[in-house]
Amino acid sequence: MGKTLAVCALLNNAEASALKIDRTLKLLRPILDEAVIGISTQTTDSTQEIVEATVADWSIPVTVFPYEWQNNFSHAINTLLEKANADWSMRLHQDMRPDLRDLDALRSFVDTEDGTYDIIRAREVYLEGRDFRCNREFLFRRGTGYDGIIWESPVYVPGKEHGTIAENDVTPDRELFSPFTIVHDGKHGAAQYYRDLTVRERMRVRELRRTAESASDFYHVGRRYQLLQVTHQQSTSMNAHSAFSASAELEPSEPAPHIQLGDLAKRQGREEKAAEHFMHARELGSTVASNRIERLYKAREPRKCVFEV
Fold this sequence. Notes:
The chain is α/β, with parallel strands linked by helices. The protein contains eleven helices and ten strands.
């Protein structure tokens, strides 16, 4: 018997992305059985009206609700996932969509999956074709969600309150690294946005660093510094390292900052330090860290030379 599929999205001041939201939802509609859309209470534009107009004539169950931001990405995504009744939920946001070429395959997977996996990861790319992150959690079996305050945190089966480790964590063998692709096509996709940064906007990143207070604040400041380095070839590694270190200190049980610190160390050629950070993240429950460690040690293996005779 075929399973059901929901789309779950959290939107905030998405008026500028109105056409993309409308187009994405309408293109997804044929493969969906449910839609759950949270509108941030920080929204000051017509996002809710745009969404309501788009889904007004849909025959499937649609939930549009106000979401009060808790400065906790896991809480936000988990709230969406918990409101969905479908067997599987697809996580999206206003500048993110599945590759349209994958839609039939997505529907086929949901209809025929046999219970082997709880989490389906997809390759994440930006319009210019460069991968900034890989293997993003994309499809969630009903009953799964995130743990911690940052959504790169380990995935779990809810067993306790938000932000605590559940006893029945999703193990790596329950995650599928699929060939599906997630496409970012807006300013929040980061690469396109930071490519066009002005001096004033770069100053804004420094201001965010100055006013950061929580582990989540420092983590995302670190990510911004990383992207500045990638897109503007600016030397921001020390700033990123400082921000991620502060995030790790404020939230010792959170693996995500250690993964980013490991990535920084790896780029600088400090493989032992990178391995140390990845292993610490793995001890904190990160399955992503296990993949980083595997790739790190695989890269150390001597390459075989093939000579033509």
